């Protein structure tokens, strides 16, 4: 019994030391559909302003996803309410149609958003993400983007 009391805290300590993640969250989509008006909102509280960070999105799709790429509108809303907005495109499939992510029936893709990013203001940040796909030749966006199960975010301390 004494060895279990020693080993369990050691395992917890080693696991916590091996991860440099400071924030993780996931937003699931009802019926595996990301609706155009459904904004994924991530609230990042009390992040240090000295370190640099890598911000990555984790997107999971099924074979019902109809596109070879995805367009996202990402915003970082700073504590002083200034907003950084980015329009992003990520490839989701190879030219032969095979998925780029890992997994079987659900593919997981890690999408680099900001690398070596500095949160330069003290306070709470909000990161929002919307899908912005549209069909070829269409001005209007896809209202219901099917085949997506969820989107997540992971913020880690940069090694630089």
Q: What key phrases describe this protein's structure?
A:
160 residues, mainly beta, 4-stranded antiparallel beta sheet, 10 strands, 11% helix, globular
Write up what this structure looks like.
With about 160 residues, the protein is mostly beta strands. It has a single domain, classed as Jelly Rolls, CATH 2.60.120. About 10% of the residues lie in helices and about 50% in strands. It has one helix and ten strands. Strands 1-10-4-7 form a four-stranded antiparallel beta sheet, with no helix packed on it. The radius of gyration is 18 Å and the shape is globular.
Short description:
This protein has 1 helix and 10 strands. The chain has one helix at 2-18; strands at 21-28, 33-35, 40-44, 52-61, 69-77, 83-91, 107-118, 125-131, 144-146, 148-157.
Question: What is the helix fraction of residues, given as a range?
Answer: 10-25%
Molecular shape: globular
Mean pLDDT: 89
- The helix/strand series, from N terminus to C terminus, equals HEEEEEEEEEE
Which class do the helix and strand fractions yield?
A: mainly beta
Cα separation of the termini: 43 Å
Main pleated sheet: 4 strands, antiparallel
CATH architecture: Sandwich
């Amino acid at each position: 019994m004494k060895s279990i009391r020693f080993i369990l805290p050691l395992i917890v300590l080693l696991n916590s030391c091996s991860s440099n993640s400071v924030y993780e969250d996931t937003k699931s989509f009802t019926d595996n559909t990301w609706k155009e008006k459904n904004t994924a909102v991530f609230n990042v509280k009390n992040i240090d302003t000295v370190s640099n960070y890598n911000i990555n999105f984790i997107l999971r799709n099924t074979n019902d996803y109809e596109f070879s790429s995805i367009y996202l509108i990402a915003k970082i809303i700073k504590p002083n309410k200034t907003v950084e907005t980015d329009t992003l495109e990520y490839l989701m499939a190879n030219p032969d149609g095979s998925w780029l992510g890992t997994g079987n029936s659900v593919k997981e893709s890690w999408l680099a958003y900001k690398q070596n990013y500095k949160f330069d203001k003290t306070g709470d940040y909000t990161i929002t993400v919307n899908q912005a796909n549209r069909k070829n030749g269409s001005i209007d966006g896809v209202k219901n983007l099917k085949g997506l199960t969820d989107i997540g975010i992971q913020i880690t301390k940069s090694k630089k």
